[in-house]
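>> received
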Amino acid sequence: MLSLSHNLLHVHIPKCAGTAVRQSLEAKGVGWQDSMGRSNDELFGAHWPAKAWKMTVDADTWDKLFKFAVIRHPGDMIVSEFHYLRDKVTPPSAHWIPPHIEFDEWMLEHVAVIGSNYIQELSNLTWWINTPLDAVYRYDELETAWEEICQRAGLPPGGLLVKNKTQHRPWQSYFEGRDDLIEIVRRRYADDFSQLGWEFA
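>> returned
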């Protein structure tokens, strides 16, 4: 999300606390409009990779922006996405998951088979942050990172909201004793594991 009034760019990656970050910044007076007052949602939608955002402004404006993103362990992200699609999305959405479907079934019959073409929200993190940013923060360190985000954006500290949080057991438990599911995630997010240093603990 781009705010020219605050010289701020937040690359909103799905299932990486993007809604919480966006609404927390809005609560501090950040508006997401271009130079003509048009909203980001109206022009682009909420989710755009960094390289696409770079094409919307000139070089001087880009250099002035504080550009950041939040990333999340692929295993954690995919568990969150599963519960979001099963517990919060409703028909007729093409990505709705019926309540009787379990995580392993979804992984084996959909994510493993269709892979990257299944849903945009499952795109590699490296695809979203495909041009250099000023800061990339980890989801599990967001509370600490939030103070730095506020400071670098020239905003008062505190006020990080919690939004769209799915309720489920620790994400690691979904992969215990399931090397087949771990391998699906490793293949699906190969670039993220090699470039971002993720590991399955």
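>> Residues 2-196 form a domain with the Rossmann fold fold (CATH 3.40.50).
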